[in-house]
Amino acid sequence: MLVTSDDVDRQRVVLVVDDEPGIRLLLRRYLEREGYRVVEAADGVQALRLFAAQPVDLALVDVMMPKLDGFELVRQLRADSDVPVILLSGRGEESARVAGLELGADDYVTKPFSMPELVARVRARLRRPGSEQAMPARTLQVGRVRADLDSRRAWVDHDELDLTRREFDLLAALLDTPGRVQSRDQLLGKAWGTSYVSPKTVDVHLSGLRRKLGGAVSVRTVRGVGYRLDAP
User: Fold this and answer.
1) In which residue ranges of the chain is pLDDT below 50?
2) Using an 8 Å Cβ cutoff, are 18 and 67 in contact?
């Protein structure tokens, strides 16, 4: 989807989901100061109701909540929505971060966090242009793999691939520069629109993308540099 001037001018809505009223209040104050409209939910069940009832541009989601935790909330949101999600959690171990990102979260922030940094991450997510806007060609193809940037669909020969949003963005970035090495930071910038996300996130999503491509093209790891897509 291309970003229009109307999209930029419209007040963005941030859904804050946390069972601690003090954190919700703090987030509301900072976000409203930045010009965002904030809606709040105290648990995942309430968040799903709010999400279904009104447009939401980004969700800040606590991981540890009653009724429906943040991981399950992300899983259910990703069933039919690409809304950016930033997880907030007191669990800083790598396994928790990877689990959240694999479920489809866009970022993972460990508590306690810096409010200015969190607001910067929100701002970066909401101002990120769609990957297709940066690529004038509407269809990209290398060998047997083709991606349509308008419909965000991809195929190997005539078989459509079941890709997550991040997998599609990474595939589009790689198809746009076949034979050229791209660093993890470059891929983060194209697919996530920010360098705040851990570079290991690229590895996680590329692993899933490789499995789905099944050797139709080769996504090679260039040790110490990044990744390169080659036609077989």
Assistant:
1) 1-9, 129-137
2) no
